[in-house]
TrEMBL record:
It comes from the Bacteria. It is a multi-pass membrane protein. The chain crosses the membrane at residues 6-29, 257-276, 282-304, 352-375, 381-401, 422-447, 647-667, 674-692, 698-718, 730-755, 761-782. Gene3D superfamilies: Multidrug efflux transporter AcrB transmembrane domain. Its main location: membrane. This is MMPL family transporter. Keywords: Cell membrane, Membrane, Transmembrane, Transmembrane helix. InterPro entries: MMPL_dom, Mycobact_MmpL. PANTHER family: MEMBRANE PROTEIN MJ1562-RELATED, MEMBRANE PROTEIN YDFJ. Coiled coil: none annotated. It is found in: Cell membrane. Residues 192-401 form the Membrane transport protein MMPL domain.
Length: 787
């Protein structure tokens, strides 16, 4: 290939790169919305076998996704309420909030009772049902007890509308009656020993995961909080909502990208300058890597429509591996001296680069087989970036590297040679066998300490401060945790409500045993028609004796017109679910009804409240037809556990697949020698993780897959390059160590990430690449000596 052909090919590659850059810029910035996905839940895979359960999980996860919950706390009740009013007023002035609720519009609590009066004889608590079913039920005694009850301060029925208190007892069990938050001075307030807490809620005028919305909303809230803390000293504001978790995830990812990208860039730059002693190789290495990262980002957004924060941080670390290809070509140029010829250099490194690219792509391809969108996107990103970075070496660098270069730094070559000779001596003969036995004995205790942890919270662990505030808000307000719920299905709404009632009987037993704080379900607010008719039947014997009823009421002091009005309201009408759902009272609870489809049937949600154990909740649903506990975190953790168990088989499969490739290139007898460094590196890494008490997750095993690919690359680079540097022993191992150190500066820095999954990934790669790089000299059949 002549020089003009080299420039022509480089020109076409440059044009393709420019088009890729323009497309990537349009995808990232030109469509009016950012494709960067900060919703950590969006990364999680579908886990439920029942498609409706998956839909319900998504609905519940995002039911309040654009809602912000604030709790204004102060030791003084008046100051807490004044601060809440001021906070609500300040937030309402900003258009980033579609609505803000602090003060409630004046209303009579009787408005909560009135819709139920027409159905009062259909609504009974379990306690009243049990009492009415007893042969010795004494209506006169129940009436006297009701008349002498203390004044009800909350949602209360009037005595003339509910003489026996049956409706009042039922109202006392409704969510608005059980809530610790009570209306005071038109504010929802809870009282604790340490003061008063006032609820303020706001709905965003957009998505919590929109970067612009996040910044505007957080700025408005921070300013408002500073103002009320100045005006009402001693005020505290507790926060929770998807907005804060999304903002924290974005901030953490930006910090990780900057930290990994900046430190690795500076570190790699200093290494390349020190080894190649010229800024030219540095710029070309970063050019090759930059092209790969741009292409990877563009393709990932094209394929997935968005890019996860996890992928961006991983992409910042990809520098360390993508730069390997250009390093090998630059090293071949430096080692050739005045005899350098670009096309000959390309022929020299092509087999090693293609073999290394193939093993890397194999590892990432296996990573992409996991039905987990975040891992698939990381695999797509890496495979694209690796391929384009390698192609840039074949098509771009030869045209830009026409002239010869300075040889590699003498210090780096001498140091590499000394280390290579030392490792070769230690690994040869009886010393090698003895050393292997000692290392094996040292590794065994570490392997014995290995354990696993598949908890999904290791992937999406929120900041401790936010989690603590959410837990405190949940404790004070009585809100449920939203991550566990029951899906109740039936042929129609009546069957769904009946099945809910069967479930709620068991949940009440858990509440009585102190295992559950409570639950939220439609059947508690709208009993099934079967239950309502049964309730009416329990009251029928009393109304079958109208004279006795008048005698009881008259004896309790009721006026005749009130008695007649109440008795004429018998038997009333049943309360239907569809009518109730259309009422204003149902507005906060409509999301619990999944709908009634004539083909698929009907379904609803029941939310347990409190931190109950998953096993206890599962037991409550056991053997109940149509009732399924959906525990999204537990389901994903189980999924991670399954794939983690399969991961060792994938790793073994990858090794088996590499064997014929290496056997074709080096012969079957030399395959163990070439594979020994990555395989031993994996073994020693597992031992160190055991000593460090690191529970193994899916991400540790995925990192070990990459250790295999990267380690095999180093063995290939050394084995392919050694015959070309016999005039300068140690030069090839110096370039391998340079590749390893750039990888350690990139992937190793992930061990400092704020994301637990990336920390696991980074630590494993830090150990694996380090061990493998030290073991690589054992992959060659001879030992170099100084010349």
């Amino acid at each position: 290939m002549n020089r003009s052909a080299l420039w022509l090919r480089a020109g076409w590659f440059a044009v393709a790169t420019l088009l890729m850059i323009l497309l990537g810029a349009w995808l990232l910035f030109g469509r009016g919305r950012s494709p960067i996905q900060t919703d950590l839940l969006a990364m999680l895979p579908a886990t439920e076998r029942n498609p409706l359960a998956e839909v319900a999980a998504q609905r519940l996860a995002h039911a309040n996704g654009d809602r912000v919950i604030l709790l204004v706390a102060h030791a003084d009740d008046d100051r807490a309420k004044a601060a809440a009013r001021e906070l609500g007023h300040a937030l309402a002035q900003d258009s980033v909030f579609a609505s803000v609720t602090a003060e409630l519009p004046p209303f009579d609590l009787q408005q909560l009772v009135t819709p139920y009066l027409a159905h009062r004889f259909m609504l009974l608590t379990d306690a009243d049902r049990t009492a009415l079913a007893q042969p010795g039920y004494n209506p006169a005694q129940a009436l006297a007890q009701r008349v002498n009850e203390p004044f009800v301060t909350g949602v209360g029925t009037r005595l003339q509308d509910d003489p026996f208190g049956w409706l009042q007892h039922w109202m006392d069990q409704q969510p608005w009656s059980r809530s610790p938050l009570v209306p005071e001075d038109n504010l929802l307030t809870a009282h604790r020993d340490d003061g008063s807490y006032v609820l303020v809620t706001a709905t965003l005028n957009g998505s919590s995961y929109d970067d612009v919305i996040q910044r505007r909303a957080l700025s408005a809230m921070d300013q408002a909080e500073r103002t009320i803390e100045r005006d009402q000293p001693g005020t505290r504001v507790l926060r929770t909502g998807a907005l804060f978790y999304a903002a924290a995830a974005r901030a953490g990812a930006e910090h990780d990208v900057h930290m990994v990208g900046l430190i690795s860039t500076i570190g790699i730059a200093l290494l390349l300058l020190g080894v190649f002693r010229s800024p030219g190789p540095l710029l070309l290495a970063f050019l090759s890597t930059g092209v790969g990262v741009v292409a990877a980002t563009t393709v990932s957004v094209l394929v997935f429509g968005q890019i996860y924060l996890l992928t961006l941080v991983f992409g910042a670390a990809l520098l360390g591996e993508a730069v390997d290809y250009s390093i090998q070509y630059l090293s071949a140029r430096a080692n050739a001296g005045d005899a350098w010829e670009p096309r000959a250099g390309l022929r020299q490194v092509r087999p090693a680069l293609l073999l290394a690219l193939g093993t890397s792509l194999l590892g990432y391809a296996l990573l992409g087989l996991v039905p987990f969108s975040a891992l698939r996107q990381m695999a797509c990103f890496a495979m694209t970036g690796m391929t384009v970075a390698c192609l840039s070496v074949f098509w771009l660098l030869p045209a830009l590297l026409q002239r010869s270069a300075k040889p590699l730094s003498a210090v780096s070559v001498r140091g590499a040679l000394a280390l290579q000779n030392l490792i070769s001596r230690l690994a040869s003969g009886y010393r090698g066998a003895l050393l292997a036995a000692v290392l094996l004995l040292l590794a065994i205790p570490g392997w014995r300490q290995l354990r696993h942890d598949d908890d999904v919270h290791l992937l999406v662990a929120p900041p401790a401060a936010l989690a603590a505030q959410e837990a405190q808000i949940r404790d004070i307000t009585g809100l449920g945790n939203g991550t566990q719920f029951y899906l109740v299905q039936g042929v129609d709404e009546e069957q769904v409500l009946q099945r809910e009632e069967a479930l709620e009987q068991r949940l009440q037993g858990m509440v009585d045993a102190g295992q559950l704080q409570g639950w939220l379900g439609l059947a508690g607010m709208v009993p099934s028609l079967q239950r309502q008719h049964a309730n009416q039947a329990l009251l029928a014997p009393l109304f079958a004796q109208p004279d006795r009823m008048r005698q009881w009421l008259s004896g309790a002091g009721f006026r005749s017109e009130d008695m007649e009005r109440w008795m004429q309201s018998w038997p009333g009408a049943p309360l239907t679910l569809q009518a109730w759902l259309k009422s204003p009272l149902a507005t906060p609870f409509r999301y619990l009804w999944m709908g009634d489809d004539t083909h698929a049937g009907a379904a609803s949600l029941v939310l347990p409240q409190g931190d109950a154990q998953s096993t206890l909740l599962q037991r409550a649903a056991a053997d109940l037809p149509g009732v399924t506990l959906v525990d999204k975190p537990a389901s994903i953790s189980d999924l991670f556990g399954r794939y983690r168990r399969y991961a060792s088989l994938w790793l073994l499969a990858a090794i088996v697949l590499i064997v014929p490739v290496f056997a074709w290139r080096y012969g079957l007898r030399d395959v163990p020698r070439v594979l020994a460094p990555p395989v031993l590196g994996i073994g020693f890494t597992l031992a160190m993780l055991g000593y460090l008490q690191q529970p193994l997750t899916l991400f540790h095993w995925m990192a070990l897959m990459l250790v295999l690919g990267v380690g095999a690359n180093y063995a290939v680079f050394l084995r392919e390059g050694e015959p070309h540097v016999t005039h300068r022993p140690g030069a090839m191992y110096a370039s391998v160590l340079l590749s390893a150190m750039t990888a350690l500066l990139s992937f190793g820095l992930l061990a400092l990430s704020s994301m637990p999954a990336l920390r696991d990934f980074g630590l494993t790669l830090l150990l694996g690449i380090g061990f493998t790089a030290l073991l690589v000299p054992t992959s060659v059949a001879y030992r170099m000596t100084s010349s």
